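Student: I would love a firmer grasp of how sequence relates to backbone shape in proteins. I am handing you a single protein, as its sequence and its fold in token form. I am told such tokens are a discrete way to write the fold. I hope you can help me see how the letters and the tokens relate. Take your time, and here it is.
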Amino acid sequence: MDNRVWARRSEADGTWTIGLLAPFMAFIGPVTRVTFRPLTPTIERGRSLGMVETVRFTGPVRTPVAGDWVSQNPDLVTHPRWLNDDPYGKGWFARVRPPPGAAPPPGLETAEAVRARVAQWIAHDRIRCWPQTPDVQMFEIGVECSAILTQLNDELARRPAGTAVMLVTDDPTSPIEMQRWSDQTGHAVLATRRDEALYTFLVRKEEHPVPRMPRRD
């Protein structure tokens, strides 16, 4: 868990794939830019592989593994949000291959071993992990649900397909109304959470929405 990175070893060739932990990506927000260090034949443990930038964070990605620097993920330059939306898949950062017969990298722990510490970190920093990183946040407190849905529709109309909007409201009828809204518009409600009197919804604008029930007049 050092430097908020993960590493996964390939049984086929011993190469380690390195990336950033999902809770860390949720904490720093949507990545706007990725820059890589120039590839070198080898790289030492703890050295920077590159930089990630968000609106409120800029920092290095450090390798927990020393060895031959095999590759970088070039797609992150044009798709930096993959670090947020698919951190253990398409959002991998780089690959490093240790020398043959090298000892296991010091300090690496299994996911099971760090599970409790990650849970404490998430709770302490109040990190909220979502199935898709929100692009827009709407806080509608003290507003009736009908007015909220009108504003949500206006917001989505201005945004491209795939946009995720996080909506926070205190309307107690919102869980029912949001499900009805999704059925009528065909846009997805990806997640729903309740924190005391507040309800949070993550919705996504679909490219080709398919309504499941007619709109009400």
